[in-house]
Amino acid sequence: MTSPQPRKPAEHVDRALCVLAHPDDVDFGSAGTVATWTAAGTEVTYLIVTDGDAGGFDDTPREQMGPLRRAEQEAAAKAVGVTDVRFLGHPDGRLELTLDLRRDISRVIRQVRPQRVLTSSPERMWDRIGASHPDHMTVGESTLRAVYPDARNPFAFPELLADEGLEAWTVSEVWLGASPRADHVVDVTDVVELKFAALKSHLTQISHLDDLEDFVTDWMRQTGRRLGLPPGRLGEAFQVVHTA
Does ATP-binding show up as a keyword for this record (predicted)? Predict the structure, then answer.
């Protein structure tokens, strides 16, 4: 008896939603992948849970950092073909797994009605601890709970339907970035300049990095090699979870 073949991600979806903790999270891990989706005609929405006001590497006043980072994320999104960027405004560095956060993410899932959701892995990467910021893991777990069961259950957060008219919606697949179980790679070699344009929009976060392109290129080359791309090709890696 042969074991069943693993399910592959859909070749194309009409709508995708990317849910990340901070401005720039989507660009470091996934901007190349997003560029391939928008080029193929997928409508992509970004949902950023915080304004990133606890980030930065200079003496920018804290009250200015949040608005700056929102503007940077909007510019970065445009570089890869995304115009719908939404922010929840939760406190940077202090995210907790709460029903309020699950409801807020469920609301946007029901609004956007995506077939695919991209978010961060809720699992810690022990060999690359920087990928496992507590906010990242909290957003990943909250998003998975919003995908299943909240957004698809008409009786979960009934106020979303009763007060806002948002019908239940079932997401078919979730892509987890920075996962220790990554099993899918996207070849982003041909769109890497768009990824770099997105990253360079985040001036408050990368202006102190002289070797940004070299560092990110080497990182993606290693990812491609590890997950089976031809030599020299650049990859972004995900764990794909089928949720329908």
Answer: no
